[in-house]
């Protein structure tokens, strides 16, 4: 008897959603995963007026608000990455994100505006009170944006749901943030492709993965090009106020959870190779594939057996 499979492609969390789920309960599990993604978007998105994050943002500078234990934990988890990166990853980045407004912008914002936005950024101004399960931002105008971790949080939640449905083989893709459960039904590892950041339709390499998350941050997904031909992308450096230029154009992190892989890929993109590798050392078992602006590829040792270059690409083990 062949294994039942449920395949899904759709749109949500402002990106393309795909999954393949194998096993007896595949159909029901697929419906549950779709429901979970919608539920999480309604909790995590700052663009959904009724979300818990929106409630915190609206109360900025005024009061702390009561949050669910789930959102409290997400905030706590996210703060860890802000701390490890000493604020190069910062979930209070929203004022800058709004200023750079990639969907509509054609030029960089005025320096004065960047300065004003920078003054509002600081994850340390997010007050969390565990006893009351309340959260709040100290100053008016401050705003939380979980864009750098949300897909990861969602990936981990979906894997949890699949386990509840007794699924042992699944591939979940939330806008290039991939989580795999178990291995393929035939027992071989899942193969997760990493897009080449400069060659449309080409891969940089493939990672063999079992029970892992593989998440990529790049400068090619969301960006605009100004009159002078300069590319301004959507991963911002919270100390300069400008899109990060730390020498990397693509960062893939492979880790045991998707929140780790998502947050670290964004953080390393901002921090660059040297500091970025130092972040990885705080999370044993996490690895990375980096491409720098000279299109050199660097792969950490833990991936030596499971990463394969695409044809014509050469990687250095670091
Ligand atoms: P993508 O969403 O394209 O997969 P990322 O996971 O790297 O990429 O997240 C980028 C998003 O994270 C941005 O759209 C923005 O919402 C937010 N962001 C941008 N810069 C930072 C930063 N330095 N720290 C935390 N979040 C950031
Ligand atoms: Mg990320």
Shape: globular
The ordered string of helix (H) and strand (E) elements is EEHHEHHHEEHEEEEEEEEHHEEEE
How many runs of DSSP E, i.e. beta strands? Answer: 17
Strand content: 25-35%
Counting H and I runs of at least 4 residues, what is the number of helices?
8
Polypeptide structure, described:
By secondary structure, the protein is an alpha+beta fold. It has helices at 26-44, 52-58, 69-84, 94-100, 111-120, 150-164, 258-271, 273-280, and strands spanning 5-12, 15-22, 65-66, 126-129, 134-137, 169-174, 177-181, 190-195, 203-209, 213-218, 223-225, 231-233, 248-255, 287-292, 297-299, 307-309, 315-317. The protein has a 9-stranded mixed beta sheet. Strand 1 (5-12) and strand 2 (15-22) form a beta hairpin. Helix 1 runs antiparallel to helix 6 (150-164), helix 3 (69-84) packs parallel to helix 7 and helix 6 (150-164) runs antiparallel to helix 7 (258-271). The longest helix has 19 residues, at 26-44. The N and C termini lie far apart (45 Å). It binds adenosine-5'-diphosphate (ADP) and magnesium ion.
How is the secondary structure organized here?
Layout: E1 5-12, E2 15-22, H1 26-44, H2 52-58, E3 65-66, H3 69-84, H4 94-100, H5 111-120, E4 126-129, E5 134-137, H6 150-164, E6 169-174, E7 177-181, E8 190-195, E9 203-209, E10 213-218, E11 223-225, E12 231-233, E13 248-255, H7 258-271, H8 273-280, E14 287-292, E15 297-299, E16 307-309, E17 315-317
Parallel strand pairs: 15-17
Antiparallel strand pairs: 1-2, 2-6, 3-5, 4-5, 6-7, 7-10, 8-9, 9-16, 10-13, 11-12, 13-14, 14-15
Helix pairs in contact: 1-6, 3-7, 6-7, 7-8
Bound molecules: adenosine-5'-diphosphate and magnesium ion.
